[in-house]
Structure formats: structure tokens, C-alpha cells
Amino acid sequence: MWRTVPVQCIRYVENYMLWGQYARDLDVVIEQINNYVRDLAMVELIGDMDAWILDIDDTCISNLAYYKGKRYGGDPFDPAGFKAWAQRGVCPAISPVLRLFEELVEGGFKVILLTGREEEALGAATMENLHNQGFVGYERLIMRGPEFKGQSAVIFKSEMRRRLTEEGYRIQGNVGDQWSDLTGEYIGDRTFKLPNPMYFVP
């Protein structure tokens, strides 16, 4: 596993993110999700506990401006630098995902936002950022508490999904930009991977 984007690949990642291919690939995945949601609505009633899980970073809101300063993943991950960026609360919405979010809420699904961001340090900034970008009406925002500090995203998110399932939620769909959003236990009926070549979260 590469800890950073290899030097010889940085220009290709930059071009991918900035010159249209990322947006086109994102639209393809969103269209697949929309088709799946339409099929669900045709074959069954949406119940009070039918849920979708959405990741936050580079799923709902974009960190592209931050990673531009990190050579699109060519520099090592900087936890303090990213925390300072996230605390500013200026991440823009990823527009196709915002439209999907709105359609899911309007369709009667319970949308749960599940992120590896630390609640203590980034809770207030994250909620404000989401609200300012139009993510209003979600069922719950779940962030990483101190008991999960240092654990992998797969372990943390699997446990959160397990708890949701035990509460009675049926996870109809699960959307994220990292494979660690979509693997492990209780992943849901369908998973959808959004493009992101800039970094990898285990």
C-alpha cells in the first residue's frame, strides 16, 4: 500500500481531479445509486427504519482545496494540518451527493452520516459546515468518540453499523469514497464507492 501518491503519478491525479474525469466518474456512481433507489421505491414501501449511511469527507463535502496544498496526496498525511483545515468548516458540498442526500430525505429514508472525524475536536465545526452546505434533515451524525481513538476505520464503522442494526435500522445503502467505509461487518444491502485517488484510509 502506498502511503502517498507516487511522485510520477501526482500530475495524473491532479488532472483527474481538476479536468473533468473525476466529475464524470462521480456522476456515473450517483446515477447507479439513483437507479437503485428508484427500483427500491417500486418494489417496497419505505419504512421508518429504512436507512442510508453516507460518509462525510470527500463523500458529502470536499477536501480538494486542502489536498491541492498537499500535492493531491503526494505529501504524507498531516493529522494536525487536516484537523486545522476541518476546524475552519469551509469544505464545500459535493453537489451530486447533496442532491442525492436531499432526494433520500424527501423519499422517506433515514440518512445517517458516519465519519471517522473526532467528535471532541471537530464535532461543532463539522455540524456547522454540513448545515451551511445544505445537509439538513439527516437522522443522525455519528463521529469517532474517545473509545475508538487509534482504531481503524473498518473497526469503528463496523461497530457503529452494528449498533444501528441492533436499534432496528435496515441499512438499504452505504456510500463512501474509501473501501474502509464499505467493508467489514453490517455494510448494508448495497454499497457504492465514490472515486478518490488522493488518499487511502485503512
Automatic annotation (TrEMBL):
InterPro entries: Acid_phosphat_B-like, HAD-like_sf, HAD_sf. The lineage of its organism: Eukaryota, Viridiplantae, Streptophyta, Embryophyta, Tracheophyta. It comes from the Eukaryota. CDD domains: HAD_VSP. It comes from Acorus calamus (Sweet flag). This is Acid phosphatase 1. Pfam families: Acid_phosphat_B (PF03767). The gene is APS1. PANTHER family: ACID PHOSPHATASE-LIKE PROTEIN (PTHR31284), HAD SUPERFAMILY, SUBFAMILY IIIB ACID PHOSPHATASE (PTHR31284:SF9). Keywords: Signal.
